[in-house]
Design brief:
The structure is a homodimer of 249-residue chains. Chain A contains five helices and nine strands. The longest helix of chain A has 18 residues, at 153-170. In chain A, a hairpin with an 8-residue loop joins strand 2 and strand 3 (55-56). The relative contact order of chain A is 0.15. The first copy, chain A, has a domain at 22-167: Nucleoside Triphosphate Pyrophosphohydrolase (Alpha-Beta Complex), CATH 3.90.79. Chain A is elongated and about 65 Å long. Chain A has helices at 4-14, 68-80, 153-170, 184-195, 201-208; strands at 24-35, 38-46, 55-56, 59-61, 89-97, 108-117, 133-140, 212-219, 226-231. In chain A, strands 1, 2, 3, 4, 5, 6 and 7 form a seven-stranded mixed beta sheet that branches. In chain A, strands 8-9 form a two-stranded antiparallel sheet. At the A-B interface, helix 1 and strand 5 of A face helix 1 and strand 5 of B. The first copy, chain A, binds a DNA duplex (27 and 27 nucleotides) through helix 5.
DNA sequence: TGAATAGTGTCTATTAGACATTATCTC
DNA sequence: GAGATAATGTCTAATAGACACTATTCA
């Protein structure tokens, strides 16, 4: 039976780091939250070259004893100052970006993650810049001139937005962007924010209700009191149909 | 204006390879093909430790001048001997596996890819083992005891299968597993192979036809001649419904 | 002629979409 | 009461699912 040492020796004989040099591994985070019926993304201002002063997605290196998902959680706290024990957060892997020249300094491969923060639809969680970044702030996604972003972060952001918008068709992922208990109006606001389209309230209620569980509680604002729900099924079957993007006038 | 050298110097001051050591980057390939109404996956037998003699997904290291997708194409040819100029092939990124201990020898992060090979539904492309592997062969996916696979390749295979099965609900990705021109029966066989469920032929025709383009040609086998189609739309709206997995009797 | 397959037709139950109506609350 | 919102009801067109039926070919 091979010892770990002899395994490694055998392996290193066939693995030539000169032919296949190791790469620096990072995570980049597309952090979404909804306020005022607008989808916002968390951005940090770069404090160093390259792209000094440009906005970028928060992110950082993956440590030797963590996987990419753990690094995403850690960097989320470090780079944005968010206290994850005080916010509902859902993180899922998005895609990996590995173009050889995506970072001009060295080979950096980044595992992008989609991060969804729950909220009340009014207030955004407060961001505090980490050590690397000059500042951290929320930006409305649909007003963003994505050419401003550093590296290939415009591509990553677009992929994150498309993943979110797409999964909202056939899953209840939108519930990650509201509070644990939510009204159908709050959930519909998420759809409005992400899809940039108004959905008729009556039909939305009828269709979405099948995937939700009523708590029995109600909440009072202006108008009739609204029932509170929590996420029921993970799936919406058959899916919601995403209206075609309204050509901006 | 910063030169590339000073950028790199500044960067290296803030990047400590001891804290965040670089990782070896690989690709692993979930290569699917359909024959005899069964979904097959290409596996190679490991020729070295660890997992000597066990079956594994084909894969290999990402070179310094290629991204993961390019490495996937290259390794597909090198590890399985497939001549990509002679087969229809679709490759898409699946997910990245980065558990620190997923390879006992060293830190290896792998970008898994889903690879779909077109075929006539009868013959599988011939595989030839590359230099690293003892042999390469097709295995019926649904008969595979996935515990046999090396590393975390059972997880990767399961993810590939689920991605394929899921995307077949709402996209025409199944057309990647048949020839460019295909009959509705051939396409239905793909659904049968992947979903492990028979779909009624009449309703399948009616629904799928909306996403396909007829070529006008027909092909003759046993029974009435069948019309040939090519892929039309990328999307199937509303989606096909995947029957619940039939509890094996 | 019989077997096999392709493709269409038919019927029903479901439901999405449009929109009206009723209910409940605040100011 | 006016205004606003929630939730339900109504009507129609579309269609999925089940399944019968016809058409076309080979053996």
């Amino acid at each position: 039976m091979s010892s770990n040492e002899s395994q490694e020796a055998e392996f290193l004989a066939s693995y030539d780091p000169a032919e296949f040099p190791p790469v620096a591994l990072t995570v980049d985070l597309v952090v979404f939250a909804v306020a005022n019926r607008e989808l916002h993304v968390a951005l940090v201002e770069r404090g160093g070259q390259p792209f000094l002063g440009r906005m970028a997605l928060p992110g950082g290196f993956v440590g030797p004893d963590e996987d990419a998902l753990a690094a995403a959680h850690r960097e989320l706290e470090e780079e944005t100052g968010l206290d994850l024990s005080r916010h509902r957060v859902v993180v899922e892997q998005l895609a990996t970006y590995s173009a050889p020249d995506r970072d001009p300094r060295m080979r950096v491969v980044s595992v992008a993650h989609l991060v969804l923060l729950g909220g009340d639809g009014v207030n955004l969680p407060e961001l505090q810049a980490g050590s690397d970044a000059a500042k951290a702030q929320w930006q409305p996604v649909h007003e963003l001139e994505s050419r401003q972003l550093a590296f290939d972060h415009a591509d990553i952001l677009a992929a994150g937005l498309e993943r979110l918008a797409g999964k909202m068709e056939y899953t209840t992922i939108a519930t990650a962007l509201v509070q644990e208990e939510f009204t159908l109006s709050a959930l519909r606001d998420v759809y409005t924010a992400v899809w940039q389209a108004e959905l008729p309230a009556g039909n939305f209620t009828r269709k979405m209700r099948a995937s939700l569980t009523p708590t029995g509680r109600k909440v009072q604002a202006v108008g009739a009191p609204a029932s509170l729900f929590i996420k029921g099924s993970e799936w919406i079957t058959p899916p919601m149909v995403r209206p075609v993007v309204t050509a901006a006038g």
